[in-house]
Amino acid sequence: MDASGSFYDRTTLFNKSDICPKEVVIELKAQYQAALDAGFEINHIDSHHFAGAFRALKVGFTEGINEIGLPARRIDNVVLGQEMLRSATPDAFDMGFYAEGATLEHLKAMLTAYKHKMPTGVVELMCHPATEVTEELRAVSGYTQQRVDEWEILTSKALKSWLEMNQIQCIGFNDIASND
């Protein structure tokens, strides 16, 4: 945290070199426990805006994930390497289904490429679907109507039919955990 008690912004955080990994573990486990205490059922660990994949946090984040033992989003999408991570992860993570890339045709092309590259692999696609644009959403994000567009694509009969025809299965982190 900075001098005012706020989390560092992404640029500052990415370039920090003096963050104690043990403090990251403590914070991660505290947030995890707070979510459990609030009644959430958690099936994986990730970090908002990939903070856990940043060089300054990666060691502590990895240790925390290993201690918690849940599947995790890949942590090699910002800084290469995740050899220390013992938890199950998807085989790939792709940020291409976003903004201009959030179209049915682009999604089909991405999934087709992954199917050829790793026929039995698991890919996590970054997406931000929403069923509607609310005032609350507008207050926290500039990416609003696109979320509804993503939701419409991801829940469309056209995509469902195409996935079945191409023998591509949608799964969640619970499935990754049970396959490990």
Can you characterise this structure?
One of its GO terms (molecular function) is metal ion binding. The radius of gyration is 18 Å and the shape is globular. It has two domains: 1-88, no CATH class; 92-179, no CATH class. It is mostly helical and 180 residues long. Helices cover 46% and strands 3% of the residues. Strand 1 (92-94), helix 4 and strand 2 form a beta-alpha-beta unit. It contains eight helices and two strands; from the N terminus they run αααβαβαααα. The two termini are 35 Å apart. The longest helix has 17 residues, at 21-37. Helix 2 packs across helix 3 (55-68). Strands 1-2 form a two-stranded parallel ribbon.
Q: How many structural domains in the coordinates?
A: 2
Q: What general outline do the C-alpha atoms trace?
A: globular
Biggest sheet, in brief?
Answer: 2 strands, parallel
Structural class computed from helices and strand pairing: mainly alpha
Mean pLDDT, as a whole number? 90
What's the helix-strand series?
HHHEHEHHHH
The tally of beta strands, per DSSP, is 2
Strands side by side in the biggest sheet: 1-2
**Regions with pLDDT < 50 over 5+ consecutive residues?**
none
Question: What is the number of helices?
Answer: 8
Backbone CA Rg: 18 Å
* Separation of the first and last Cα atoms: 35 Å
How large is the share of residues in beta strands? under 5%
The helix fraction, in percent, is 40-55%
